[in-house]
Amino acid sequence: MSAQPASGAAPRTVAQQAAASMRHPLTLALLALTFSTGTVDAVSYLRLDHVFTANMTGSIALLGFGIAGAGGLPVLAPLIALAAFVVGAGAGGLLAHELADRQQRHLACALTAEGTMLAVAAILAAVANPRVGSAVAYSMIVLMAGAMGVRNATVRRIGVPDLTTTVLTLTITGLAADSRLARGSGGGTIRRLAAVSTMLVGALSGALMLRVGVTLPLAFAAGLALVTCLAYSSFGPRAGAPGA
Fold it and tell me: How far apart are CA 242 and CA 2, in angstroms?
């Protein structure tokens, strides 16, 4: 999958290739997952007791607010999300260890796990009433946060700069700090802007889909994970050296 290096040059890794081109299959796959992050967090925050299941920075901050009794924010929901995320990330780490040298299979297994857990959450939402504080709602939080934990461990191992799929703080920092206005090189600007705008549109789409019901955005996120898995499995191995 790596590009053929020029004479005397070291071969580029798949992550480096993806970072060099917006058209690389891995870049497109990670942007699709960034979109679904916005959708998933729209469901958990807006309908499942103000908790993030993908962005653990947000959940830990909300947990602190909840412990302080500020704004009527919950304590149990972010604790459950954090615990499920940690378990999912641990499972993702084991998967990464077992498939360290087989990136295509690694990503396929991780996305299959993510899509399956999100699909089960969507089914729960469809057959039961996920009221805030109910066992169904907490079960959905566990499934969603677990799925995001697996994904984060996987994306972390792949290591494409600025495409973590769930966190944008460093991406936005790099966008500003490396900009021409800050006398930087401006490198990676398009990739960083794409990540920020993709998550924004994903969150917007998730909030709009919630007007129909909780099942729709979850089913969409599950389907997107599985379609991304199939697409990358089909086209990823064919990727040659992308242009800079």
Answer: 10
CA dihedral 28, 33, 39, 41 (to 10 degrees): -140
Assigned domain for 14 exists: no
SS3 assignment for 144-197: HHHHHHHHHHHHHHHCCCCCCCCCCHHHHHHHHHCCHHHCCCCCCHHHHHHHHH
Matching residue, tokens 């499934």: 143
Mean pLDDT per 10-residue interval, the chain, length 244 residues: 44 72 89 96 95 94 95 94 97 92 89 97 94 94 98 92 91 92 88 95 97 96 96 72 34
pLDDT at 1: 40
CA distance 53 to 58: 9
**Residues 199/35, Cβ–Cβ less than 8 Å:** yes
Q: Fill in the amino acid letter for 170.
A: L
Which phi and psi (to 5°) does residue 105 adopt? -70, -35
Q: What is the DSSP letter of 130?
A: -
Q: What is the pLDDT of residue 100?
A: 77
pLDDT at residue 101 in the model: 79
Read off the tokens for 127. 């057959």
Q: Contact 180/171 with Cβ under 8 angstroms?
A: no
Q: Is residue 95 part of a domain?
A: yes
Total count of domains within the chain: 1
For helices 215-235 and 189-209, the axis angle rounded to 10 degrees is 140
Of residues 69, 224, 218, 39, the one with CA closest to residue 139: 218
Residue 77 contacts residue 165 (beta carbons within 8 Å): no
Reported as type and span, the H/E element at residue 131 is: none
In a domain, 13, yes or no: no
